[in-house]
């Protein structure tokens, strides 16, 4: 299943998600995270997209996975948050 | 004697060249090869630059750009889509460890925007820093800025709008909803301004550059000395233009 979302992060920037997921088990198969936010280092977004594959589209699991990726790669977001990213991704679920 | 930084005035160049030069200065400074550098430049032909994280198809009407002779390029910095025409663009490259640059990224945005605001004040324009990365005058945006940090070096670049043609901007920028395009254009016209709009008179690039030079000197208490790109920077810029910024793989990467 392919789906898109556009989410204005509160007090932040615009986040646009393009998602492919398996509807049988609600697992992310492909994701593209775009928008006018800032992230440091910038290349971490590509890492985030790779690492989020095979993550279940369930709020707690997804947020936990996103937070652990942020911690592992020492990612700093400006205009985006882990909560905002979780929310934007979950908005893609039908 | 105050610290001396380099001032580069590289004139009008293409989108690919401009981004390649900013990146070359970043790399050269990270190698300790050149001092902290402030650069002023313009865009010819007019161009759109998009943020590193933006989807090009979402932001730019590529056919319209081709029809109108507007270039486009992906930046190495995040942030939004920017239409570059009647503006002075600045960039500043300085080591992350420099005592005048806050370690905290948000604070450093404020500090560097402070230099631009000082420059606007030299022109008789009052403005405020609007976090994260905007400068506004009378509540309207007059400058947008974007920063990256690579190899322990800060690169921030931004626009100082001399004049703004919102109608032309929306010939080449995509809108989220075509049905409300007119309303969106009217909305943006209310929310952006320019030096010429505020002063009610035309200003030249040179006037703005002189004001911005004083602004950066005062904000950072440095002396900006006119310089040129080094041989190394010229070579790096050519390489980055060829291998990165002019490539479809780069500009269309997302």
Q: Could you give the topology of this structure?
A:
The complex is a heterodimer of chains A (94) and B (254).
Chain A: E1 2-8, E2 14-22, E3 27-35, E4 38-40, H1 44-51, H2 59-72, E5 76-78, H3 82-90
Antiparallel strand pairs in A: 1-2, 2-3, 4-5
Helix pairs in contact in A: 2-3
Chain B: E1 3-13, H1 15-30, E2 37-43, E3 47-50, H2 56-59, H3 62-68, E4 71-74, E5 82-84, E6 87-95, H4 105-122, E7 128-130, E8 134-137, E9 140-150, E10 153-161, H5 166-172, H6 181-191, H7 195-199, H8 205-220, E11 222-226, H9 231-245, H10 248-251
Parallel strand pairs in B: 1-2, 1-11, 3-4
Antiparallel strand pairs in B: 2-6, 3-5, 6-10, 7-8, 8-9, 9-10
Helix pairs in contact in B: 1-9, 4-8
Brief summary of the model shown:
The complex is a heterodimer of chains A (94) and B (254). With 94 residues, chain A is an alpha+beta fold. Chain A is 33% helix and 33% strand.
Report on this structure.
The complex is a heterodimer of chains A (94) and B (254). Chain A contains 3 helices and 5 strands; from the N terminus they run E-E-E-E-H-H-E-H. Chain A has helices spanning 44-51, 59-72, 82-90, and strands at 2-8, 14-22, 27-35, 38-40, 76-78. Chain A has a 3-stranded antiparallel β-sheet. Chain A has a two-stranded antiparallel ribbon with strand order 4-5. In chain A, helix 2 packs across helix 3 (82-90). With 254 residues, chain B is an alpha/beta fold. Chain B is 41% helix and 28% strand. Chain B is globular. At the A-B interface, strand 2, strand 3 and strand 4 of A face strand 9 of B.
């Amino acid at each position: 299943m392919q789906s898109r979302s556009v989410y204005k992060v509160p007090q932040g920037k615009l986040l646009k998600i393009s998602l492919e997921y398996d509807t049988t088990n609600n697992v992310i198969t492909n994701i593209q995270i775009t928008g006018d936010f800032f992230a440091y280092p910038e290349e971490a977004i590509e890492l985030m997209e790779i690492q989020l594959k095979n993550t279940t589209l369930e709020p707690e699991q997804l947020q936990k996975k996103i937070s652990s990726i942020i911690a592992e790669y020492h990612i700093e977001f400006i205009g985006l948050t882990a909560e905002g990213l979780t929310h934007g991704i979950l908005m893609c679920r039908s | 004697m105050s610290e001396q930084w380099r001032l580069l005035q590289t004139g009008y160049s293409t989108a690919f060249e401009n981004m390649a030069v900013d990146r070359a200065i970043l790399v050269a400074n990270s190698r300790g090869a050149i001092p902290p550098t402030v650069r002023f430049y313009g865009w010819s032909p007019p161009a759109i630059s998009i943020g590193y994280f933006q989807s090009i198809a979402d932001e730019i009407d590529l056919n319209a750009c081709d029809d109108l002779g507007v270039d486009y390029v992906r930046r190495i910095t995040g942030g939004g889509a920017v239409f570059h025409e009647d503006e002075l663009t600045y960039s500043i490259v300085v080591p992350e460890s420099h005592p005048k640059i806050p370690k905290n990224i948000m604070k450093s945005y404020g500090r560097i925007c402070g230099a631009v605001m000082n420059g606007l004040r030299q022109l008789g324009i009052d403005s405020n820093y609007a976090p994260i990365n905007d400068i506004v005058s009378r509540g309207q945006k007059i400058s947008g800025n974007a920063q990256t940090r690579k190899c322990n070096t800060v690169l921030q670049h931004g626009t100082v709008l001399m004049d703004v043609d919102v109608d032309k901007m929306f010939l080449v920028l995509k809108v989220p909803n075509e049905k409300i395009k007119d309303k969106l254009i009217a909305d943006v016209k209310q929310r952006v301004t320019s030096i010429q709009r505020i002063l009610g008179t035309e200003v030249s690039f040179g006037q703005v550059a002189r004001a911005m030079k004083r602004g950066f000197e005062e904000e950072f208490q440095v002396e900006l000395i006119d310089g040129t790109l080094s041989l190394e920077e010229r070579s790096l810029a050519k390489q980055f233009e060829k291998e990165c910024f002019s490539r479809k793989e780069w500009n269309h990467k997302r």
